[in-house]
Amino acid sequence: MNNPVFFVDDEPHIRDAVSQALLIEGIDVTCLPNAVEALRVIDSNTPAIIITDIHMPVMDGLEFMRTLRSKNDHFQFIVLTGHGDVKTAVDAMKSGAYDFLEKPFSTEQLMKSLNNASDKLNLLQENIWLKKELDMQTHVGPKMIGHSKAMVSIRRALISAPTSQPLIFVGQDGTGRRLAAQFAHDIHATPDSELIAASGEDLYELSLEALDKAIHRLSEGKRHCCLYLHSAEHVSFEQWEYLFKHPKLERVFGATTQAEPPLKSLATLIHLPTLDERKEDIGPLYKHFVRHTASRYQLQPPHISLEEVKHLTSLEWPENVKQLRQFAELRALKPDTFRMEDWNSEKSLEIQSMTQRTEYFEYCLLFDALQRHRGRLKEVQLELQVSRKTLYDKLKKHQLDKAKFKA
Residues bearing 4-aspartylphosphate (predicted)? Predict the structure, then answer.
C-alpha cells in the first residue's frame, strides 16, 4: 500500500493490537492517542487513510473527520463504531466517511476496507494529476511532451513537489533541463513570477555579498522570481543555501550533467533520461517540432508517415532532443528537398561541424526574412545588409525561391 495510514484511538491496548495486526500484513501505520494530537501531526496537504474511533475525549471521531476533511476532502476515513450503533454509522457516512466497522472486527475485514479505501484515494490522486497535467499541456508555454514511463514519472514528481522545494535537474546536454525547470516553475509560481537564469561557473567565486548584488541585478524590475542555475555543481553549499533562502527568490532550480552532484543533499534530484532511453517519445516529439516550425513560418506542415517515425526511432541521438528538434525544423522548412535516404547512414547523425551549424542558421535567417517580407528581395537585402549578388548567391545555395513567399 503506497498511501500513509493513521490509526486514532484513545485506548492503548486497542492501538497496540491494530498496529501489530497491520504490521504483520506489511502496512506501516502511525498510531495516535486522540484527535487533537492527530490534527497536529497529520499534514492536510498529504491525503491519507485514517482509521478512527468515534467515542474519544475532547474531540470525537466525527468532529475530527469533519475538521480534517474541511481542509482536504481526499482523506479516506474508516470509522469504528460499537456493535449495533446504526445511527452513528449513518452519521459518519453522511459526514464523508469511506466506510465503518463495528467492533469487534477481524483483520480480514479491516484489510478489505483499507485496500478499498486505498484504491479510491489512488483514483482521486490520479484524477488530480491528470487534470493538472492536462492544464499544463494545454497551457501556453513550455510542454514536457512524451508518454514514456520516465516522462510520466517526471511530470508527476514536478506536479507533486512542494512549491518551495529546490530541485536539481540531472541529465546530459539536450535532455531538456531548462524546459523541465520552466515547466516546474509554471506549475506552482505566482502569476507574475519570472524564471531568471544564471550560470554556476559565473557565481562560484563570488562572496555572499557579491552574490546578493548579482541576484538583485538579475531580478531588477521583477516582483517575483525563481532562479534557474545552470552548471549548479560549481556553486558551494554555502552559496546554494544562501540562494535558497534569498528573499527575492521564490524557488531555486539547478541543472547539472553530473549523476551525483555535490549539492544532492540540499535538493531533490530529478533525473532526465536521454532520448535513446525514451524511444517511444520520438514520434510525438518529432511531430510536435515539425508542426511548431511550420506554424511559426506559416507553412503547410508536411505529412509524417509511420515509416518515417519508425526510421527515426531506429537511429541513435547523441545530442538528444536538441538534435531531434533540429531535424524536425529542417523537415518543415525543406519539405521539397528532404530525403529519408539522407538519414540512412550513421554519418548523418554525427554531431554537426561549425560549418554545418552556420549554414543551418543562415538558411533559417533567410527563410524568416523572406517569409516576413513576402519575397520582396529589396527589403530582405536591406534588413540583412548584404549585397544584391551575395543575396542571390545565398538563395541559390539554399534553393530558396522568392516566388514561393509572395502573398
Answer: 53
Q: CA dist 271 to 142, 148, 157, 170, 223, Å? A: 18, 14, 11, 5, 30
- Which distant-in-sequence residues (6+ apart) come within 8 Å of 365 by Cβ? 384
Q: Which of 180, 190, 199, 177 is nearest to 249 (CA)?
A: 190
The set of residues, in sequence order, having a beta carbon less than 8 Å from that of 220 and lying 6+ positions away, is none
Pairing of strands 5-8, 49-53: parallel
pTM: 0.60
Going by C-alpha positions, the residue among 100, 159, 154 that lies closest to residue 125 is 159
Q: What is the pLDDT of residues 84-136, one digit of tens each?
A: 567 777 888 888 899 988 888 899 999 999 999 999 998 888 777 667 656 65
Residue 62 pairs with which residues in a beta bridge? none
Class in CATH terms, 149-271: alpha beta
Q: Cβ(364)–Cβ(329) under 8 Å?
A: yes
Instruction: Report, at the CATH architecture level, how domain 274-343 is classified.
Output: Orthogonal Bundle (1.10)
CB 242 within 8 A of CB 208: yes
Mean pLDDT of the chain: 86
Domain 5-126, CATH homologous superfamily name and number = Response regulator (3.40.50.2300)
Q: What percent of the chain has pLDDT over 90?
A: 45
Q: Do domains 149-271 and 274-343 have the same CATH topology?
A: no
